[in-house]
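Minutes, project check-in
Item: structure for the 342-residue chain
Input as provided by the requester:
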Amino acid sequence: MKLVDAVYVTEHGTKVGVEKGSLTIKAPERDRLRIPFETIEQIVICCRAQVSDEALARCARRGIRIAALTKNGRLKYAVGARETGNVLLRVAQVRCFDNAQGSLEIARPIVGAKIVNSRAAVLRWSWDAKLESQPFLASIADGLAGRLDTAAKATDLDSLRGTEGDSARLYFKALGHVLNGGAHEFSFDSRSRRPPRTPTNALLSFGYGLLVNEMTGALDAAGLDHQIGFLHRLRPGRPSLALDMVEELRSPFVDRFVVGAIRRQQIRLTDLEELPGGAWQLTPDGRRSYFQLWEEFRSHQEEHAFLGRTIDRWAIPTVQALLLARHLRGDIDAYPPWVRTP
């Protein structure tokens, strides 16, 4: 039986229900789709849809997470199984959060992995770049290497956050250099969020939203509290730990995916629309194309150095959440982040 992992609901007026032990999806003017519950890991809704009580109950019993996203990819709400996490693990998480050194020891490898992965992306782009672009990209890679050393020596969270922000600004200069002037319709000057002010920023924000949603579900499944983070400060309703954990995955997952889709012209400017006030978002057809491409991207495998084997990309958030839980329980001495080589 084929594992579909994620089911995406993108059309307004879609009805999600249950029939003969299978999930049913009926979009307007489309045939009813039946999917066995055994093949589903999560359901992502990005439209106005109706989910029956029976479908909600069946998903909750099976541990299938239902997440509703806004049009720019931010999480509106999520419905999952009954809380089953080990309370002792959450106590250990809170104790680590309350200990500045303990928080730093988790946050530092996360930031280090983010910088390593960002540098790997820049080096990979430099291999494909025109000869005149290579010195600039090489200088960015060198700058990131220096910031990696600074992050490793950080003695408090505030200085670590400063290094992380500085490395991100430097990295986005490289991303803009790679995209600007290419044989496509997109450009990138700087990162803008809430709302994204350019088409490229809209593509990035939507991908980051999907990644945060996946990590939130992975942390919940591992028995951790996704709101109690170590790098991102606490804020009511903010998934701080999920935001912590996706830092190491932003560049090798979302940025790589978006740059590749733009360069291959799999996503076009017509897949996005500008709203009154200057914000950009994907059109309904654009979201469907994005989801299809994203699922294809997630189905590929990556090497996991700590595990010593390759795993599917879609499984990496779950693996990292479990590794963090093992560290907090004292099973491993340090949290091992995921890093990707160029």
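Outcome recorded: The chain has ten helices and twelve strands.
No further action items on this chain.
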